[in-house]
Design the sequence.
């Protein structure tokens, strides 16, 4: 049977493997999903796409 | 979390204001509500679900009749409300939901929530008691009888209760699910589409292949998300069909069809009687002018007869004879010469003849009147026969018809109409009741239906088993095609930025998918641990409960490999442990979700009775034989620090044995026309349980505390 460290470690590994932009993206998505948990989440996909694009441009030095 | 009070106004059978104060003493965790059938035990359970969620348990009748019918009779705008007061980690929450007789028809409800007396919103309550847990915290009696967890040899088949959903709700797992879902949709965003000003057929082809693969993956993931719900529904349907098939008897089906035909024919015959009664009444009404003219006609004929007797009617001699006699001076009839006296008499007669012309009209009138009277007589006989025939057919008490007039016939006919209408209503009621009884679909035997449903369930189960592998394959394919697309698009900077953004989203989605899967996997482990602890608290036997990937449960002897056959009471205790485990996990998970530590702490949660949330168990011993009841009742106080149990007083002595654990006892007193006068004896004292009252239509219930 797995224990808590297994899950925590597994998620830690997944998080460590994320590129810096993806880490920022995960934090951004979590914050938005919590903020709109009981609200209208319809516009979120577009918002995520724009945010991901912004992060990509920033990483590329375009912004 | 503990419920403090439940207040009701005009809720269903509960007329006026009622209040239940729940026991909050950990050592006396049970609040017992004893109520006869029809008193409103299920209505009480639904007071919780409606008050908290504006929802009802499955099978709750008449959700558009919430306001007590007697209250509506007095005031057509009467209102009902349910108010729950509970405390949670030192805060006091109050939620009151209300509606009235008119608004209830359109499910128009108002809700008022406060936290420590300050205005709050429903979400504040639902964060503590998520909607997904409604069926677990407020468990209906029917589910005790039908839960697949209780079925012989079916423990491994799982349960229709979606524990996975409940656990996700408690852990705010929906946040992770929605995150993955919204990122999946973000892939389709216009912002990430290839730049319009760059044309390259190779990139275009790579993009098309990637998009196609991503769409297939999205569809497979959406389908996978739907599968648990579909499986739960299919499992329920298959179990129900299996139960019906087990009881299937072709002879009974034939009898059912014959009875259907008989009742259908009865309705048609009653319809014909009712139509005939109404038509005959119309016929009578069309002829009523004869009834009203009858006296005038008789009086006219009588008067004309008198006139004739008095000689006012015309003499029976023609005026031409008299004219010729006077002209010739000889009688035109016998030729004899007229004397002076004779001449005078003939002249007198001649003057009468002139005045009698009017009297001739009187004669003609009398003939007409007599014809009218004859017709009236014939019509009266015809109507009398028809009414008589109808009255006999409808078994209506009738006076002797000889000499009866239309007034009497009208009165008899009105009785016939009343009887025919009520017989028709009764026939329709019987037919409707019969039609409401479960009947297999036309043309298919219940066995065929059960087989079809099982086949569908098997197909879904197979799909569920293979879906993870299929998604993994599709995911690899998407990765491969995306890498190809990204590589080829690297030639253009504008293109590369877009593919890089997609890459970032894919990484984020992978994170959320892992989190979601982990929450389910480790939540299942927490649940398995909790149900084992709970079950061992209830029953001191070396059993081990295993929870499958789909939250199905199996019971083994500790260390054994073969599932154990369980007794009736053991099965009910497994189900109660199942509910108790969730109620014990609920406060721990709520705290974890609040601290947003789901990914750190899930999978290592310890549960105990002391912190568990309360549950309301409607008639938990209903599927049990008497001999098993005591086992379950004596185990209940060990389940949670607060339990609310509406139950019938059938086995009150069994409950008396745990009286030390009962913090509050109420009797739901039923008063109705159909009830019998009964008392419930608790600790040697009698309390009214039900009372017969011809005036109590509809039935009413009041809640009285006895301990």
Sequence:
């Amino acid at each position: 049977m797995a224990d808590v460290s297994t899950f925590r470690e597994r998620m830690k590994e997944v998080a460590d493997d994320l590129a810096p932009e993806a880490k920022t993206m995960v934090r951004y998505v979590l914050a938005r999903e919590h903020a709109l948990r009981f609200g209208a989440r319809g516009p979120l996909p577009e918002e995520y796409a724009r945010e991901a694009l912004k992060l990509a441009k920033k990483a590329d030095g375009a912004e | 979390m503990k419920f403090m009070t439940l207040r009701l106004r005009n809720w269903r059978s509960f007329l006026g204001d009622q209040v239940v104060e729940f026991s909050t003493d950990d050592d006396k965790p049970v609040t017992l509500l004893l109520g006869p059938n029809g008193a409103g035990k299920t209505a009480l359970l639904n007071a919780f679900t409606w008050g908290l969620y504006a929802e009802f348990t499955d099978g709750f009748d008449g959700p558009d009749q919430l306001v007590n019918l007697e209250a509506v009779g007095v005031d057509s705008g009467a209102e009902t409300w349910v108010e729950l007061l509970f405390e949670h980690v030192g805060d006091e929450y109050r939620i009151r939901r209300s509606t009235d007789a008119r608004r209830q028809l359109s499910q128009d409800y108002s809700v008022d929530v406060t936290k420590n007396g300050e205005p709050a919103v429903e979400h504040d309550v639902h964060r503590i008691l998520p909607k997904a847990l409604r069926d677990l915290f407020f468990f209906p009696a029917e589910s005790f009888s039908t839960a697949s967890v209780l079925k012989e040899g079916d423990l491994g088949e799982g349960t229709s209760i979606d524990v996975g959903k409940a656990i996700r709700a408690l852990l705010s797992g929906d946040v992770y699910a929605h995150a993955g879902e919204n990122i999946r949709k973000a892939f389709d965003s216009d912002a990430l589409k290839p730049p319009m000003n760059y044309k390259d057929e190779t990139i275009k082809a790579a993009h098309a292949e990637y998009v196609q693969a991503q769409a297939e993956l999205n569809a497979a993931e959406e389908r996978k998300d739907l599968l648990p719900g579909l499986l739960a529904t299919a499992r329920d349907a298959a179990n129900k069909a299996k139960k019906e098939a087990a009881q299937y008897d072709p002879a009974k089906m034939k009898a059912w069809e014959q009875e259907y035909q008989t009742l259908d024919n009865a309705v048609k015959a009653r319809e014909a009687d009712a139509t005939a009664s109404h038509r005959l009444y119309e016929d009578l009404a069309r002829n009523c002018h004869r009834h009203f003219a009858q006296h005038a006609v008789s009086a006219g004929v009588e008067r004309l007869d008198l006139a004739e007797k008095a000689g006012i009617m015309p003499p029976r001699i023609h005026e031409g004879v008299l004219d010729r006699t006077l002209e010739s001076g000889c009688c035109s009839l016998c030729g004899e010469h007229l004397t002076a006296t004779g001449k005078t008499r003939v002249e007198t007669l001649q003057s009468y003849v002139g005045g009698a012309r009017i009297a001739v009209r009187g004669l003609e009138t009398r003939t007409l009147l007599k014809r009218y009277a004859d017709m009236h007589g014939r019509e009266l006989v015809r109507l009398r026969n028809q009414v008589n025939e109808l009255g006999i057919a409808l078994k209506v008490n009738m006076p002797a018809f000889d000499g009866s007039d239309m007034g009497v016939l009208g009165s008899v006919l009105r009785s016939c109409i009343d009887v025919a209408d009520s017989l028709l209503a009764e026939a329709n009621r019987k037919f409707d009741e019969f039609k409401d009884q479960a009947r297999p679909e036309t043309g298919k035997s219940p066995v065929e239906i059960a087989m079809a449903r099982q086949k569908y369930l098997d197909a879904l189960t197979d799909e569920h088993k293979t879906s993870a592998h299929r998604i993994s394959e599709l995911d690899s394919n998407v990765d491969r095609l995306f890498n190809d697309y990204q590589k080829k698009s690297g030639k253009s900077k504008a293109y590369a930025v877009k593919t890089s953004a997609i890459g970032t989203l894919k990484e984020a989605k992978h994170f959320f998918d892992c989190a979601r899967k982990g929450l389910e996997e480790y939540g299942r482990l927490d649940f398995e641990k909790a149900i084992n602890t709970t079950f061992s608290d209830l029953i001191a036997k070396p059993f081990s409960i295993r929870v499958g990937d789909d939250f199905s449960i199996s019971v083994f002897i500790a260390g054994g490999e073969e599932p154990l056959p369980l007794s009736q009471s053991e099965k009910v205790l497994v189900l109660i442990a199942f509910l108790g485990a969730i109620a014990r996990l609920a406060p721990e998970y709520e705290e974890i979700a609040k601290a947003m530590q789901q990914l750190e702490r899930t999978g290592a949660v310890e549960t105990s009775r002391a912190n568990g949330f309360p549950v309301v168990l409607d008639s938990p011993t209903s599927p049990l034989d008497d001999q098993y009841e005591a086992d379950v009742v004596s185990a209940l106080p060990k389940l949670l620090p607060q339990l609310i149990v509406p139950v019938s007083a059938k086995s009150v002595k069994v409950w008396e044995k745990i009286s030390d654990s009962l913090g509050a006892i109420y009797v739901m007193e039923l008063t109705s026309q159909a009830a019998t006068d009964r008392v419930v004896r608790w600790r040697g004292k009698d309390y009214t349980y039900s009372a017969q009252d011809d005036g109590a239509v509809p039935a009413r219930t009041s809640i009285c505390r006895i301990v």
Notes: The longest strand of chain B covers residues 662-672. The interface with chain A takes residues 123, 172, 174-176, 178-179, 182-183, 185-189, 191-192, 493, 496-498, 500-505, 507-508, 510-512, 514-515, 518, 521-522, 525, 596, 599-604 of chain B (CB under 8 Å). DSSP finds 19 helices and 16 strands in chain B. Residues 263-433 of chain B form one domain.
